[in-house]
Amino acid sequence: MKGNVENNAMRDLNNVPDNNGFFGEFGGQAVPEDLKKIMDEIAEAYKNICKSEDFINELQSLAKYYVGRPSPIYFAQRLTEKCGGAKIFIKREDLNHTGAHKINHSIGEALLAKYMNKTKVIAETGAGQHGVAMATACALVGLDCEIHMGEVDVIKEHPNVTKMKILGANVITVTSGTKTLKDAVDSAFVEYLKDPQNYFYAIGSVVGPHPFPMMVRDFQSVIGREAKEQFAEMNNGALPDYVVACVGGGSNAIGMFSGFMNDLGVKLIGVEPAGHGLDTDHHAATMTKGTKGEIHGFKCYVLQDEQGEPLPVHSIASGLDYPGVGPQHCLLKDIKRAEYVSATDKECLDAFITLSRTEGIIPALESSHAIAYTMKLAKTLPKEATILVNLSGRGDKDADYVAKKLNLI
To answer: 71, 77, 231, 315: which sits with the fewest CB atoms below 10 Å from its CB?
Structure first.
């Protein structure tokens, strides 16, 4: 970015979303009028609760003593040596309680639901991390919890299904469509519409109608705030040259990016799932191959057909298997503040094994996309360059699947 483009971009970013929930031309509330009223009530309740000193203190206390924040940054020396080139640093969101970044917004949404006197929280999940985190948060605050999950993902991510049930959640197996994340979202939304006055739909990423992209971003911004301070402390006040995170809906990435948004010398890179390849129809690279459209009540880039219907998508990582993407990411792409690239299933698996065997850290398949691109990027950079990658979750849930896939068991 140069000159006025930079300045205009930063002015936009400092004032998003607007009062109607738009990040530039993306976001908003593409929902029926009666549902818009419910969304506006959630937005108002969120605005009010954020002014509450009791809420802020409770959220911060739970982040520290329950979640285990701050999550550390770790210098991956052996991975750096293996790749050659830039130094690789890892933000360890995998060390949070429940094993991923999802707990950050789940506790916030559960507290908001309780504040609004809702009786049940409904959520969708792909890889199961949001489902486990939401079931955990509901158990913590004493709310009923219902999780919708595609049948394909129920089989693939069975350890997380077991955890959700142990935590008291009612897990609904979705057998419609492709039986994956998009269909889980559809199913959860249908159930939510049966009684939106008493139910709270806890969206698991920075997607959906306003205020959810804003609200989930705000809860996840703790990642970027911590990371900026920690990295500077480790590197004599310097910031990373590159910040990398995987992108499906985009919650972990926007949480990390938010800490560096105004630091134009820091390059922001989101890594999407290229699946079997961008030249096939088996990928979920929304920012790379998608076009502007609407999905699940908001405007964004969408992988869609000529009639505007979402296309089937594929990723080895269930949590990235979504045909849309968060509206703030769409804005960042268009103003060229962030670059969006992709990694294939094969590259993801290689990164999964490489990180496991060089650093003793088993990453989630979602996070492995970010590791995969980081490994490629590092090789092209001088040794004094630095890359900070967000490890959004741990790979316990994926271990058996990957072991079978690679004939390790």
So the answer is: 77
- Which range of residues forms the domain containing residue 56? 21-62+102-216
Do residues 69 and 87 lie in contact, with contact meaning Cβ atoms separated by under 8 Å?
no
Tokens for 297? 């009540």
298 & 367 share domain: yes
Of the listed 71, 87, 109, 124, which one is catalytic?
A: 124
303-340 tens-digit pLDDT: 999 999 999 999 999 999 999 999 999 999 999 999 99
Question: Is 124 known to be catalytic?
Answer: yes
Tell me the pLDDT tens digit for each residue of 18-59: 999 999 999 999 999 989 999 999 999 999 999 999 999 999
Count up the domains in the chain and report the number: 2
Residue 14 confidence (pLDDT): 57
Q: Distances from the Cα of 184 to the Cαs of 28, 98, 258, 322, in angstroms?
A: 22, 21, 28, 10
The answer to whether 187 and 224 have CB atoms below 8 angstroms apart is no
Active site residue 392: yes
Q: Is 325 in contact with 312 (CB distance < 8 Å)?
A: no
Catalytic site residue from 87, 91, 102, 179? 102
Quote the pTM value.
Answer: 0.94
